[in-house]
């Protein structure tokens, strides 16, 4: 299997590429290559499926691409095909002569709004992340702080984590709960990622322990909370609290009680290729969590998982669990703005006004459910 970096390095500026994503089939001229972050920029990009031409360069993250075809290359006689997935994934093959590009350009507002910088709903439960989303995630990865002793880095990390209202939490390894010792504790904040090397630190010190045991601030997003609680209790004697379990949340919003790991859930919800979390096959990386020193690639994989843990929490809570609440907020917020009668609006501002109350409806029997639990 060709590595992502090898695929990107084979491309050259000025080539005309045909790139397939889950939503689009983009043709354009390659104008920029970021080999470090595996990102490409296309000039004069056109979606062959909808015949929409983008008015600005389109930045694409490697993880968005299902296949890449070099349609025209002034430096080579023949075009070549490259795929960003393993051979197990069925790909559509596009031949140059089969691509027909109509001359007219779409200019409707709806099509202009359909840009790569916005999240797009995919089939079923999944969504398509934008290039901007991946850039923000990359910023988190670049801020990774690896902590092996209780020095200034450690205390700055603890202070930052304590100031958050919500964090992403990951233990490596987690699968066996209490039955394997802790190698790493990973924490994601909206802007940073911290990896606490517990093998090097020797134990979970009181500053970090107090954060993990707090039931209020910060709360912790994790996947399979029962394993976390079991691990921390039997390995470190601490009582983990303030839990938001994305496995439970996923089961509730999908009504699907199927055991899925964090990685599997992230791949399904955000429509991400399994390549994203895999190691580069050309690098000889030791995947034993207890071997030191830990490679940069191993640390990056943990950073990706814990960053997506926080993103998964945010998506499940705000896009699904609170969806009806946000709809009611939106309806209530519009109860005054469209009234052109200034006097009538003034009359509705008194303390006993019931304007808009009809838009505030309980979501089922939620009071009874809360009372019974």
UniProtKB/TrEMBL annotation:
Record-level GO BP terms: piRNA processing
SUPFAM superfamilies associated with the record: Ribonuclease H-like (SSF53098)
Region (Disordered), start-end ranges: 95-119
Molecular functions per Gene Ontology: nucleic acid binding
Source organism superkingdom: Eukaryota
UniProt xrefs under Gene3D superfamilies: Ribonuclease H-like superfamily/Ribonuclease H
One cellular component term from this protein's GO annotations in UniProt: PET complex
Coiled-coil ranges per UniProt: none
PANTHER family from the UniProt entry: PIRNA BIOGENESIS PROTEIN EXD1
Biased composition (Basic and acidic residues): 107-119
Organism: Musca domestica
Name of protein: Uncharacterized protein
């Amino acid at each position: 299997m060709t590595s992502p970096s090898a695929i990107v390095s084979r491309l050259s500026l000025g080539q005309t590429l045909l790139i397939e994503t889950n939503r689009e089939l983009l043709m354009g001229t390659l104008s920029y290559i970021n080999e470090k972050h595996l990102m490409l920029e296309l000039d004069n990009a056109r979606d062959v499926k909808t015949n929409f031409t983008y008015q600005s360069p389109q930045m694409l993250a490697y993880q968005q691409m299902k296949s890449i075809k070099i349609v025209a290359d002034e430096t080579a006689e023949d075009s070549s095909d490259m795929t960003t997935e393993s051979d197990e994934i069925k790909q559509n093959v596009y031949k140059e002569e089969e691509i027909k590009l109509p001359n007219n350009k779409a200019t409707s507002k709806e099509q202009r709004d359909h840009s790569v910088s916005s999240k797009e709903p995919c089939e079923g439960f999944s969504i398509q992340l934008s290039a901007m989303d991946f850039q923000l995630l990359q910023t988190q990865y670049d801020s990774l702080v690896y902590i092996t002793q209780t020095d200034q880095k450690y205390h700055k990390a603890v202070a930052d984590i304590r100031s958050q209202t919500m964090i992403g939490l990951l233990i490596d390894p987690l699968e066996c709960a209490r039955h394997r010792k802790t190698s790493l504790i990973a924490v994601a904040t909206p802007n940073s990622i911290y990896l606490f090397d517990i093998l090097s630190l020797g134990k979970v010190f009181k500053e970090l322990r107090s954060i993990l045991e707090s039931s209020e601030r910060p709360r912790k997003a994790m996947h399979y909370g029962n394993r976390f609680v079991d691990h921390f209790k039997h390995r470190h004697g601490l009582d983990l609290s303030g839990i938001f379990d994305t496995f439970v949340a996923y089961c509730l919003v999908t009504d699907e009680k199927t055991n899925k790991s964090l990685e599997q859930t992230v791949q399904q919800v955000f429509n991400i290729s399994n390549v994203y979390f895999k190691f580069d096959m050309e690098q000889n990386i030791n995947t034993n969590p207890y071997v030191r020193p830990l490679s940069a690639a191993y640390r990056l994989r943990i950073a990706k998982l814990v960053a997506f843990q926080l993103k998964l929490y945010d998506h499940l809570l705000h896009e699904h669990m609170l969806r009806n609440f946000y709809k009611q907020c939106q309806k209530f917020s519009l109860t005054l703005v469209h009234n052109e009668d200034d006097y009538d609006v003034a009359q509705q501002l008194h303390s006993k006004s019931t304007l808009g109350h009809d838009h505030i409806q309980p979501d089922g029997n939620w009071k009874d459910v809360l009372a019974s639990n």
